Amino acid sequence: MLRKDKFELARRMVVCLMMTLVIGHFLAAGLMEVRANWNSSAFDQRSYLRLGLRIREREALTDGNRHPLYPALISLFAEREWAYFTKSKLLSLTIGVMALVTVFALSRRLYSDDVALLATFLLSINQEFIRESSRAICESLFVLLFFASWYYTVRGFSRWRCWAAAGFCAGLAYLTKGTGQSLPISFVLSAMMIYRTRALKERGIIVYLLFYLIAASVLLAYNYKRYGNPFYNYNHNPRPVVR
């Protein structure tokens, strides 16, 4: 028994060490990218920075294209100084670290330490994820929320109450980026394939959609009030009816 406890303790120490190395490597690579990313007009960063300022000055919630959750976060320290750009990049990198921790923690619950470490490691060395996490844009936040929503969706098939968290995270993902809308769509289609005619009677599905709407309601209400369409996006509706 004592030998088994020692083995378990050693295994946990190895897992913690590996996670420390994974996050340390990601931070080192990310900080190099942050330093190299000096042009605030590149990669759509200027638009996010401008929207963050407009939110802080209470002029708008969205520009009709970019969704407001990430700009709302950077609006907390928005200013017309260069430090605003630097802080926004560091916030994205911090959220990237949070995404790695989230992937590890949730994958560990769903599978095992080995699977969780592998998934986290592969994400941490993904060059696109490293670059996106070093820019003043929403991508690292979207990855975090998308994965959280996926996890709680999977858990919901055995514990339907998890679908409340899945729907809420999906709503936050939609507040982060328009492609977050794919989460409730894929969920509903999957539920219809699994439950067929019983889909509308499954309370978990209703709970998912309800919590999705609760999370996304701020943007949906704003778009309807300003543009006349709750799902308005400039790329699809270039001529809104501004109210």
SSE diagram, text form:
Layout: H1 2-36, H2 45-56, H3 69-74, H4 82-110, H5 113-124, H6 127-132, H7 139-156, H8 162-176, H9 182-195, H10 203-227
Task: Characterise this structure.
There is one protein chain. By secondary structure, the chain is mainly alpha-helical. It has a domain at 147-243. It is 71% helix and 0% strand. The protein is built from 10 helices and no strands. Helix 1 packs antiparallel against helix 4 and helix 1 (2-36) runs parallel beside helix 5 (113-124). The radius of gyration is 20 Å and the shape is flat. The model has no long low-confidence stretch (mean pLDDT 91).
Alpha-beta classification: mainly alpha
DSSP helix count? 10
Mean pLDDT: 91
Distance between the amino and carboxyl termini: 71 Å
What does the overall shape look like? flat
What's the alpha carbon Rg, rounded to whole Å?
A: 20 Å
**Oligomerization category of the chains in this entry:** single chain
Poorly predicted tracts of residues: none
Fraction in helix: over 70%
Number of E-type strands: 0
Q: Characterize the main sheet.
A: none
Strand % is under 5%
Tell me the series of helices and strands, N- to C-terminal: HHHHHHHHHH
Give a nutshell description of this structure.
This protein has 243 residues and is mostly helical.
